[in-house]
Amino acid sequence: MEYTTLNNGVKMPMAGIGTFLLSPDEAEASVLSALQCGYRLIDTANAYVNEKAVGRAIKKSRVPREEIFLETKLWPSFYEQPDAVDKTLQRLGTDYIDLLLIHQPAGNYKAGYKLMEKAYQEGKVRAIGLSNFDKSLIKEILDECKVKPAILQTEVHPYSQEKKLKEFLDEQAIIIQAWYPLGHGDHKLIEEPLFTELGRKYGKSNAQIILRWHIQSGNIVIPGSKNPDHIKANFDLFDFELTDGEMAQIAAMDKQKRYYTCTPSMLKAYAEMVPPVDAQK
């Protein structure tokens, strides 16, 4: 495993497993499989409605809680609920969260951020950050916050490298965590001839080459899977290193092509949506 150090001194693994779109049963099985393979970073969210399952997997794994870096995200409809963090802790079955993020810049996200700051100051959360915020919205938070965000979780992959945003984040000591690190499974991206060539050179799959590029670029990755073989392969990234020239070749592939674009109507819907967290298994 390789680690990065957040702006408050907390160490965070560079590679983990995501649980987006996984049912509770799938999330429990995937997280347990990942922990058995050596993963120590787990990503979930209120809106995934699988936090209880993630908590169960952690307990079943018998990996000491202090060895696991657990992150989750607050959903907009919970930003103004004073007990939102406590309820999240209860669902996860833990007394602290390693990283808590504002999931969407919808609803009263400033109130949500203050809620996270309070949890941080109370020792319930070890680090806080943002998800799906653009530069202008990040600046809003920076202008008012007492605790600086440590992470921005956003879409990044070789076709959308967010170079200008990353320059700004580097100035602020905020680290990118990439979702859709493999371009939403776009076969055209994954099967780029360059990745095939590098895969042959290093004895790795095209996906492993892309994930290694992320890590060497300083991006934390959380690919999701419910296939035990894919889970194992997505973590087999630490026995090789791309050259500077190869990194530059991948950097030249940037097309600023995103697979997800948020709209005002989507943000309005997010603010009104209440995930059925209390009904989850």
Provide an overview of this structure.
The chain is built from twelve helices and ten strands. It has a single domain (3-276), classed as NADP-dependent oxidoreductase domain (TIM Barrel). The two termini are 32 Å apart. Helix 1 (24-37) packs parallel to helix 2 and helix 8 (193-202) packs across helix 9. It is 41% helix and 13% strand. The protein has 281 residues and is of the alpha/beta class. The protein has an eight-stranded parallel β-sheet, covered by helices on one side. A two-stranded antiparallel sheet has the order 1-2. Helix 3 links the parallel strand 5 (69-74) and strand 6.
CATH superfamily: NADP-dependent oxidoreductase domain
Number of alpha- plus pi-helical segments: 12
Number of domains: 1
SSE class = alpha/beta
Mean pLDDT: 97
Low-pLDDT stretches: none
Termini distance? 32 Å
Tags for this model:
single chain, 281 residues, alpha/beta, TIM Barrel, two-stranded antiparallel sheet, 13% strand
Quick synopsis:
This protein has 281 residues and is an alpha/beta fold. The strands form two sheets. The protein has an eight-stranded parallel β-sheet, covered by helices on one side. It is 41% helix and 13% strand.
Topology:
Blueprint lengths: L2 E3 L5 E3 L3 E2 L5 H14 L3 E3 L7 H11 L7 E6 L9 H9 L6 E4 L6 H13 L6 E4 L3 H10 L6 E5 L7 H10 L2 E5 L7 H4 L2 H10 L3 H12 L2 E2 L6 H6 L10 H8 L12 H9 L9
Parallel strand pairs: 3-4, 4-5, 5-6, 6-7, 7-8, 8-9, 9-10
Antiparallel strand pairs: 1-2
Helix pairs in contact: 1-2, 2-3, 8-9
